[in-house]
Amino acid sequence: MEVREYVTELDLNMSEIQDMRATQYAIFEGGFGKENNPNSVKYIADQIGDKATAVGFIFLRYTAVGIATGIINVIAGIASTEKSRLKTLVRDGHYHMQKLENFLRDYKEFDRIKVKLPFIEYNTVDGKIRFVIGEGLITGARYKNGGWISDM
Q: I need a surface site. Which of 65, 83, 87, 150 has the fewest CB within 10 A?
C-alpha cells in the first residue's frame, strides 16, 4: 500500500468543517482497535452517510460503505507502530479542525475560509483514502458580502 503525506488548500464553510470534523471523529471512534469488529464498517458508514460533501473533501470516494470499508482495510493492513501513529494523527486532525470551526464562530463577518490542511493518503487497491492529520493554515477568509481577504 502506497502512502504519502502532503498539504492541499481547501475552500470551506462552517457546515463543511463541522462535517469533516464529525467524519474524522467517527473514524477515530469506529476504526482504531475495532478493525476486526464486523460492526465497524456499519458504524462508520452510518456516521458519515449524510456528510457527502465533507466525505468527498477528505476521502476521495463516493459511498459511505465504500469509505468505511476502505478505512477499516487501511487500519487492518498496517503495522502496529504505523497504526499507533495514524491513530494519533487522525485524533490530531480532528482536534485541529475544531480550531477552524472556532475561527468562523469567532469572526462572524466571514462565511468561508481557505485553509491549507495536511493529509496522509493511502493508495489502496480500492482507491485512495486520506485523513486530515494536523493543524491547518488559514490563508484567506470571505466576508459574508462576498469579498475575500488573504494572507492571514
A: 150
Which run of H or E residues covers position 110?
strand 110-124
Which residues in 59-82 are b (16+ Cβ under 10 Å) and which e? bbbeebebbbbbbbbbbeebeeee
CA distances to 91, 102, 104 from 111, in Å: 26, 12, 7
Give me the amino acid identity at 8.
Answer: T
In the block, cell 475575500 appears at 148
> Look-up: residue for cell 485541529?
96
Q: Dihedrals φ, ψ of 134, to 5°? A: -175, -160
The DSSP H or E segment spanning 46 is helix 40-48
65 and 45 in contact (C-beta within 8 Å)?
Answer: yes
**CA angle (76, 82, 83) in 5-degree steps:** 45
With H, G, I as helix, E, B as strand and everything else as coil, classify residue 111: strand
Contact assessment for residue 132 and residue 24, using Cβ atoms and an 8 Å cutoff: yes
Mean pLDDT estimate for the chain: 85
DSSP label of 74: H
pLDDT at 64 over 80: no
Structure confidence at residue 123 (pLDDT) = 86
pLDDT tens string 16-57: 999 888 888 888 877 776 666 777 777 777 777 766 556 566
